[in-house]
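Support reply, case 0932

Customer input (verbatim):
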Amino acid sequence: MNDESFDELIASVKDAGKILRGEVAASRVFDIPEPDVKAIREGIGFSQSKFAHLIGVNLRTLQNWEQGHRHPTGPAKVLLKLVQADPKSVVKNLHANHA
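Our regenerated output:
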């Protein structure tokens, strides 16, 4: 890494710290809406236990998501978006992996 690239990297880290502390606003903000877990599950006609098993989460976790006590993050959020967008394909592929 050359000096110019290193200096750029250090400046970026310092900027990130300022954003994290609320000293400056981020130049871009991505607002990804929370998936409606219950609507997604009901849309494919699965019970809570069957859906939890399908996506590989604890039943209580799914219930907490549906009740709004917790919110899916990371890979779970992506998986829910995929189920919402193409339920037949995702259910078929996930079911094949559980068989």
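We compared this against your earlier run and they match. Two observations from our side: The chain has two domains: 1-30, 37-95. The chain has a mean pLDDT of 90. Please reopen the case if you see a mismatch on your end.
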